[in-house]
Design a protein that fits this description.
seven-stranded antiparallel beta sheet, Dna Ligase, domain 1, elongated, alpha+beta
Length: 179
């Protein structure tokens, strides 16, 4: 073989090795999160066409007049009122917030969540055609709860960053509702 052919084979070999490592690395950095959410939910979290931000308030026995939506969601044994909802599918940077929800480093895998928090502040609803998944967040306890499966997991400071990112949307929801 000529030196040029050897060089080309070496370059191709290095490229295949690097591509294989990249695939393995990306698989490993979301392994636990993928197992927790399941492949369908993880795909929706990452790629759903519509994402809604839901502002929650503790539910009461009757519908409150000052709530603009008045839908309820049940988390564990408690009802929470959806005070307002906003479609955030097109806001800048959402792709990064979605990505943080499917990578392992966003979660505190060593902390067991034994009971449901009393206060859930907001939810993100990911939907695409007839599929949807809703994640509910408790900021003080740093917990995320999958409304469809009932599974919940402790998060780390990443949840605070997500909340900070969504804060302008939550603030805008206090003055007007788009849904």
């Amino acid at each position: 073989m000529q030196r040029g052919q050897v060089l080309i084979l070496a370059i191709v070999g290095i490229a295949v090795a690097m591509a294989s490592y990249t695939c393995w690395h990306h698989y490993r950095k979301g392994y636990h999160a993928l197992r927790m959410w399941g492949p369908e939910s993880a795909t929706l979290i990452r790629h759903a066409q519509q994402v809604r931000l839901l502002k929650l308030a503790p539910g009461s026995g009757s519908r409150e007049e000052n709530h603009s939506i008045n839908d309820r969601i049940r988390i564990g044994e408690e009802d929470f009122t959806i005070v307002q909802a906003r479609d955030i599918s097109t806001i800048r940077g959402l792709v990064h917030a979605r990505h943080t929800l499917i990578v392992d480093r966003s979660f505190d895998w060593d902390r067991n969540v034994t009971s449901a928090p009393a206060e859930w502040e907001f939810a993100l609803e990911f939907s695409d055609q007839d599929q949807h998944v809703t994640l509910v967040f408790a900021l003080q306890q740093r917990i995320v709860h999958n409304l469809q499966t009932g599974q919940q997991q402790a998060m780390n400071e990443t949840l605070e960053r997500i909340a900070e990112y969504l804060k302008p949307q939550l603030g805008a929801m206090t003055t007007s509702s788009t849904d």
